[in-house]
Write a structure and sequence with these properties.
By secondary structure, this protein is an alpha/beta fold. It has one domain (6-343): Aldolase class I (TIM Barrel). 28% of the residues lie in helices and 17% in strands. The chain has a twelve-stranded mixed sheet with strand order 7-8-9-6-5-4-3-2-1-10-11-12. Helix 1 runs parallel beside helix 2 (91-104) and helix 3 packs parallel to helix 5. The longest helix is centred in the N-terminal third of the chain and has 14 residues, at 91-104. Residues 1-16 have low confidence and may be disordered.
Length: 345
């Protein structure tokens, strides 16, 4: 039996199977389960988005099949994202099915990035199914600004979701996109809010992905500048922690909490990149910041055996580009035409 024979399990396929052309081991898959969302964050989506027809989106069974194949090939961490994962009908069925890999020991972590508008409703089930950590996006503590940035979101629901996740026993990390005009001055208050609740928080630079209704240049703020500003009143101690991703972590000595910086534009993090992304239409993107793509939906809808699917995945990973080429320039088109909500942030 070859490593890629049909219905091979995690035990029958030797790992690491997924190593790219530059020798980087891929152990982390982000799966966008839908392009839809109940919010319309100004930096993520245009106000009037055209969403994909249902037939183009992978069914729950197809998502399970592809994600499970990645696990068989050596992926140890799965993150469900979107769009908003919790608006996908039947998501808990998928989580339940994928949780078998946690029980078998093939997967270390099954997790989720969410806007938390429906987290209060789903937190107990997620925790029961083995989800130990969730990332929640929340860019401001001001209800009016939150409603404007998300075009209609209710901050109280998000905060209730954060609380419910904690009560269910999950660890919550807050993600906040730094926006020069809107929340840059509020960043210390956001950090304080998170750390008072024993939550880690990560700041993100806006990335040039997909056409939106405004020019991102006006809102771009370098996290290097944010860090310098924070260091004028707090002591930040670098932590040796690395997740193979773009985040760099510090401890804020005064609050005792952890703070991350995701700086794709002012820092290059590609040499240690361990992750790839699957869109809700089954396209494998091995780099967030490049247009490279492998159509896995076409492979499975053509009736491929597991061995063919595994080969297609391995081929997509082998072609993983060396790095991205993000640039934010006034008036320039986005570096990548697809929206973050399509690729899954
Ligand atoms: N809806 C979920 C949420 O908001 O957490 C999951 C999907 S969302 C696309 C994932 C993350 O991407 C969020 O933290 C969001 O703030 C971030 N994001 C979206 N568009 C972005 C952009 N253009 N630049 C940087 N981060 C972005
Ligand atoms: Fe929706 Fe998340 Fe994009 Fe906001 S960032 S519009 S919550 S997908």
């Amino acid at each position: 039996m070859t490593p890629y024979d049909a219905h091979a399990t995690a035990r029958t396929i030797p790992t690491p199977a997924l190593t790219d052309g530059f020798g980087r081991k891929v152990t982390y898959l982000r799966v966008s389960v839908t392009d839809r969302c109940d919010l319309r964050c100004v930096y993520c989506m245009a106000e009037h988005m055209r969403f994909l027809p249902k037939a183009e989106v992978l069914t729950l069974e197809e998502l399970d099949r592809i994600a499970s194949m990645f696990v068989s090939l050596g992926v140890r961490k799965l993150r469900l994202t979107g769009g908003e994962p919790l608006v996908r009908k039947g998501l808990m069925t998928l989580v339940e099915s994928l949780s078998r890999h946690l029980r078998s020991g093939a997967l270390d972590e099954l997790t989720l990035t969410t806007n938390a508008t429906r987290l209060a409703e789903f937190a107990p089930d997620l925790a029961r199914l083995g989800v130990k950590r969730v990332n929640v996006s929340m860019d401001t503590l001001k209800p009016d600004l939150f409603a404007r940035l998300t075009r209609g979101g209710d901050l109280a629901r998000v905060q209730a979701g954060v609380e419910a996740a904690g009560a269910a026993g999950m660890k919550v990390k807050i993600n906040a996109v730094a926006l020069a005009r809107d929340n840059a001055a509020e960043i210390p208050a956001l950090i304080q809010w998170a750390h008072e609740r024993d939550l880690a928080i990560t700041l993100i630079e806006t990335m040039p992905m997909g056409e939106i209704d405004e020019d991102r240049t006006d809102q771009f703020v370098s996290l290097g500048d944010v860090r310098r500003d924070l260091e004028s009143f707090w002591t930040l101690r670098d932590l040796p922690l690395t997740t193979g991703g773009p985040a760099r972590y510090v401890e804020v000595l005064e609050t005792g909490g952890r703070l991350g910086f995701i700086t794709p534009l002012s820092h290059n993090f590609c040499e240690s990149c361990n992750r790839v992304r699957l869109t809700c239409t089954g396209t494998l993107h091995s780099c967030l910041g490049q247009e490279d793509a492998t159509d896995l939906r076409a492979v499975i809808r053509a009736g491929a055996a597991d061995a063919d699917l595994a080969r297609a995945i391995a081929g997509g990973i082998d072609a993983k580009p060396k790095g991205h080429d993000f640039r934010i320039a006034r008036g320039a088109a986005p570096s990548v035409s697809r929206h973050m909500s399509t690729t899954g942030g």
